[in-house]
Design a protein that fits this description.
Blueprint lengths: L1 H25 L9 E7 L3 H12 L7 E9 L7 H9 L5 E6 L15 H10 L2 E4 L23 H15 L18 E5 L1 H9 L4 E2 L2 H4 L6 H6 L9 H6 L9 E7 L4 H4 L10 E4 L4 E2 L6 E7 L5 E6 L5 E4 L15 E2 L6 E3 L1 H6 L4 H17 L1
Parallel strand pairs: 1-2, 1-4, 2-3, 4-5, 5-12
Antiparallel strand pairs: 6-9, 7-8, 7-10, 10-11, 11-12, 13-14
Helix pairs in contact: 5-6
Amino acid sequence: MKNFKFSVSWRLVVLFILVMAAPAAAAAPAAGVDDEIVIAMCQPQLGQIQNIEQLYEKDIITVNKLKLIGVYHEDESTDYKSAEEYVKKNKLTWVSFETIKGKAALADLFKENQWTEQFRAIFARTGGIIFTGGWDIPPAVFGEEDDLLTEAVTPIRSLYEISFLFHLVGGGRNPGFAPFLETRPNYTILCICLGAQSLNVAAGGSLYQDIPSQVYNRKTVQQVLKAGQEQIHSSRYIKALYPDEKDLPPAFHRVKFNKGGICVSQLKMGKNDTPYVLTSHHQALKQLGKDIVVAATSMDGKIVETVEHRKYKHVLGVQFHPEYYPLYQKGLYLRGQPGGELNFNPREFLLSHEPSMAFHKAIWQWFSGALRD
């Protein structure tokens, strides 16, 4: 009889503990304001490390405790040594580097391959990832031959990053593949310029290999420049005419938002706002990949400027450069035109054409908030 009473009492104690613990487990919070947040960034060159450093230090990335893992492939020809030396010299203990090892054939990008477990490990240790700008994607990845103007000079980088993005969000080239975000749908992905193009290709889409010739049927630099600011998507054209000029500014043009898209719904921009953005690309999204949705375009509607993902709310691709930290500097002056005075400050330009600066900061506020979600 005593054994029976002890058994009943013990069971009641265990039941009480489980009942009390259950709500706490169910209500386990996402990363708090003071928690360390770990993100990865592909192609961690010196300039990209400095971009994140400045955005973090100036509280444009509004995370109190950030840890950054710079990811690159061991066979890339890009120089990462200067970035690693800069991190060591400046005691940026919150920054580290990691290499992706091994090779995968073009036919293996859109399925499990020898990179899969490396991707999975990075995904497990991070709350988000940034895919940065760079050179063109090899057109063979999206089933085309190389245009004469395509500059696919970093193929290894493109292959592993596109495979990584496919592992994260899946895509039309292998619809049966279960992407990582199925297990963590709130994982944060920010894709910038080339990154946005890689996202689209990973999801099964394609690209215009050259905007002037394929979208606007323009064949010369002069024809591009005569078209006006809203159809110029890179400073390469003005620099081609004035190769000896120093301190020329980057190109800027306006964008317009699709009603109900992420720029309006999550970044809280007005549906009729047309902010300026820093643009530096000659390729653009063409056929959209699976579940990729347009959120903003150029003013003429011909160039996709922002995309989101239909299933995963914390995936954002922008065709412009909100990460370029000189945009936020008070003391940087460039030449407003070739041969002109040093009187053009990018920050002042954005502030004088609001909500341009507000839009740039809203992207990083969104990113920071998504990481804490």
